[in-house]
């Protein structure tokens, strides 16, 4: 993959992803409200909220908090650019993890006990989903013969035909990455979940606005990973991928509104068991099948 293609992909992702992410967040709120018997806010309510945050003054205990959040946002954009430009999936995984680490350090830098608890829980979430995400990247390489996401367009069948068990495992940890209940331990998008706002307790104004925009970028990237399983050499597979992505996002909203938050022990144990069973077994089969 050429550096120019990645730069173009990153620029396109930086412009398009927040628009789609904002619309998805609006749909999330509307669908959640209907599931709870409410009318819900307008579709563009997430945009109105972010615009209001940008207009507010920052009230922070130090100046480094905003720098760390900015770094987290930048790396999230770079990760999306790498993925959607057809670049290396494993590198994309490493970059988005680096974004998560900057977000955690931003919370720790405030020295607030509430933010530190949120940062601790965010760290546990990273430890929980990261093994399955790495297994997904390795399984993709074994199925496609390359880490480059552009390689799927040269395949005769979608990779889910051979790594469907990995897909189910990633579907499980996707709930953690999207911060949906029952795994929204560090930060919830719904006000009814907690009085103190977890990892973002000390964030306000433009800093909090950057956090919300970063989540829009992350959501589009993670859903892009879902669509990757269903794309192959047929151009019409892109339509199938989009349909599956929308179905999966609706499933995540349904799960978010029907399950109570679990303890961190259950989060860590269940995610690692799923990673070992789904990821480990599928990779073992792909590795040793040619020798049988």
Automatic annotation (TrEMBL):
GO terms for cellular component: plasma membrane. The chain crosses the membrane at residues 66-84, 89-108, 128-147, 159-178, 222-251, 271-291. Pfam families: NADHdh. It is found in: Membrane. The keyword Transcription does not apply. InterPro entries: ComplexI_Subunit1 (IPR052561), NADH_UbQ_OxRdtase_su1/FPO (IPR001694). This is Ech hydrogenase subunit EchB. It comes from Enteroscipio rubneri.
